[in-house]
Design brief:
By secondary structure, this protein is α+β, with helices and mostly antiparallel strands. Helix content is 20%, strand content 33%. The chain has 4 helices and 13 strands.
């Protein structure tokens, strides 16, 4: 821990935003490095009194492997609903549901299911705020919700790099190129994440959910009130509304 960095003070405006208050322009003090950013993540979880168990695989600046622990309260079941800021976006992803803590030699053995999922993206920062990549990381890489859909058929036999996902917003199919996401890369990341989570004092465990990165998106929702995606026998659906004045 960086003892000269006040993570609790830095996390305070994020906690205010999590609790429905004003969205800040940024953090003060700003995280200066990875240790500071992870310290803010932990302070937010402690301030929310949230048990965790929801994780996001992410790339800092689009290249450096990092992660975020997210509040369990933002994990939703398919078919549910949530209210979001008007500037929210959506991603289609796969989510790993664990049966136990992964071992580096065989991380796939710890997976109970691989499910289709949405990630709802909206930073705690105010619209137009010029936050840094480390401030984004401190804010859980802007994650505002995860919607867990059905398991993908045949995942134990391996999945193609592209799943041929269909995404619909308000019943209209979205024409978009799906990113390739090789399963071996996700398993390598999972092995890394197991060590990272232990280092943060929050080891991975049975029932934890881990989103693995966008295959589609982020795409602006533009006021859409229903999202639906399907692939390989799995589907995920969610209803959306928006907070006024945001």
């Amino acid at each position: 821990m960086n003892e000269d960095f006040d993570a609790a003070t830095a996390a305070a405006p994020l906690l205010t935003a999590w609790q429905g208050g004003a969205r800040p322009q940024g953090l003060s003090p700003r995280p200066r490095d990875l240790r500071d950013a992870y310290a803010v993540q932990r302070a937010v979880m402690q301030g929310l009194g949230d048990p965790g168990g929801l994780w996001k695989m992410a790339l800092l600046d689009g290249r450096d492997r990092q992660a975020a622990v997210l509040p369990r309260r933002i994990l939703h079941a398919s078919g549910g609903a949530a209210q979001l800021p008007a500037d929210a976006a959506i991603e289609v992803e796969t989510a790993l549901v664990l049966s136990c803590e992964p071992e580096a030699a065989d991380p796939m053995a710890a997976i109970a299911n691989i499910c289709l999922a949405f990630e709802l993206v909206a930073p705690r920062y105010a619209p137009g705020a010029g936050f840094t990549p480390l401030e984004s990381m401190a804010d859980g890489f802007r994650s505002a919700g995860v919607v867990l859909g059905a398991p993908i058929d045949g995942w134990r036999d391996g999945l193609p790099d592209r799943l041929d996902i269909t995404l619909m917003l308000d019943g209209d199919t979205v024409s978009v190129v799906e990113a390739a996401a090789p399963m071996d890369q996700a398993m390598d990341f999972l092995g890394w994440l197991a060590g990272h989570a232990r280092s943060q004092g929050m080891p991975l465990k049975a029932g934890d959910v881990i989103i693995t990165g966008a295959r589609i998106g982020p795409l602006p929702l533009n006021g859409a009130t229903h999202a639906h995606a399907n692939t390989l026998g799995a589907k995920v659906a969610f209803d959306l509304s928006y907070r006024r004045g945001e």
